[in-house]
Design brief:
The chain is built from 5 helices and 7 strands; from the N terminus they run ααββαβββββαα. The protein is an alpha+beta fold. The protein has 2 domains: 110 residues, no CATH class; 49 residues. Helix 2 packs parallel to helix 4. The longest helix is centred in the C-terminal third of the chain and has 47 residues.
């Protein structure tokens, strides 16, 4: 049987370099494939679709350049994974502006940026791949601008649905707990029955 000679140091070095380069190529290929993936945006889109239909008012700058209260349905525009929240609709183009939220496939991030004035240059406010983080940032932005003199919780369909769902969830948990208690009671009764039956057999 032929016994090959031990691998020489130079051949070991060559194999080591091949192994390293192979790993680098795999990482590059993985990175390229990730760049071609769509950035998830459905939760962000759904959030804005749900709040746009509500009687929620925020303070904006109106066409006359003065502070005014605007319902969200008139301040928010959504199209093709790009959402705009207008905080100023002034006739003075220098003072018009909006917040733009978009999915950036190249950066693999959701970008929140401010667009202000004539031929605006994007001003980065926030970025993350996590939709929940982006939504929390935007909720804080909206909360600072809510007009509470016009926004009443009792007038919000989402508020009513929220408490209805909470009640349904609580009832479901209670029913599940009762079902578990009943299951345990039946199990204990069965075990006691088996135990008693076994003891009677031993007495005989």
């Amino acid at each position: 049987m032929h016994n090959p000679k031990p691998i020489s140091p130079s051949a070991r070095y060559f194999i080591k370099l091949l192994e390293k380069r192979s790993a680098e190529i795999k990482l590059e290929q993985s990175a390229k494939s990730q760049l071609n993936q769509d950035v998830l945006f459905d939760e962000v889109d759904l959030f804005f679709k749900q709040i746009m239909s509500q009687n929620i008012f925020i303070y904006t700058v109106g066409q006359n350049g003065k502070k005014e209260s605007t319902i969200l349905a008139k301040a928010i525009f959504s199209m093709s994974q790009v959402i705009r929240i207008f905080y100023s609709t002034s006739f003075d183009d220098e003072n018009t502006g909006f917040i733009r939220i978009r999915a950036d496939r190249h950066l693999q991030l959701i970008i929140v940026e401010r667009m202000h004035g004539i031929r605006p240059k994007p001003e980065l406010l926030y970025s993350s791949l996590d939709q929940c983080h982006v939504i929390r940032f935007l909720i804080r932005w909206i909360m600072r601008r809510v007009d509470w003199s016009k926004t009443k919780l009792v007038n919000l369909e989402l508020y009513r649905r929220y408490h209805q769902e909470l009640q349904e969830e609580a009832e479901a948990k209670m029913n599940a707990a009762l079902a578990e208690q009943e299951r345990e009671r039946v199990q204990q009764a069965y075990e006691a029955h088996v135990k008693n039956k076994t003891q009677r057999r031993r007495v005989r």
